[in-house]
Amino acid sequence: MENNNLINREQVEVMALFGYEMTPCQPLSFKRRGERDEVEITELLKTQIRFAGATAIHIFEVLVGHEHYRLEFNSIKLIWQLSKI
Fold first, then answer.
1. How far is residue 7's CA from residue 39's CA, in Å, rounded to a whole number?
2. 11-42, pLDDT tens digit by residue?
3. Mean pLDDT throughout 55-83?
C-alpha cells in the first residue's frame, strides 16, 4: 500500500497554523490544482517527522469527513504532497 501512495501523491496548497499548542504545525485545509474550493481538514489523526539526509519530511495523517489522507511537507523544497490512504 505504501508504494501505491507514492504513485498517487499530488502536490497541493495547504493552509496551516504554525506554533499551535503541542503541535508546531497543524494543517487546516488544502486545495488541489485546478480546483477552486479549499477542502477543510476535519481531524488531525497523527503527526511524525522523517529525515532523509538534511531534509525533514513532516507527515500528517488527517480526516476530511470520512476520507483518510496523508499530507507530507518537505522542509527543503517547501512543498506539500497529498495521498489518499
1. 21
2. 999 999 988 677 778 999 999 999 999 999 99
3. 96
DSSP state of 9: -
Q: What pLDDT, on a 0 to 100 scale, did the predictor assign at position 18?
A: 84
Q: Measured between alpha carbons, how far is 84 from 10 in angstroms, rounded to an integer?
A: 10
Q: Decide if 41 contacts 27 (C-beta within 8 A).
A: yes
Summarize the confidence of residues 68-85 as an average pLDDT: 96
Instruction: Say how far apart CA 41 and CA 59 lie, in whole Å.
Output: 14
Alpha carbon separation from 80 to 29, 42 (Å, rounded):
12, 18
- Residue 25, CB-side half-sphere exposure with 13 Å CA sphere: 19
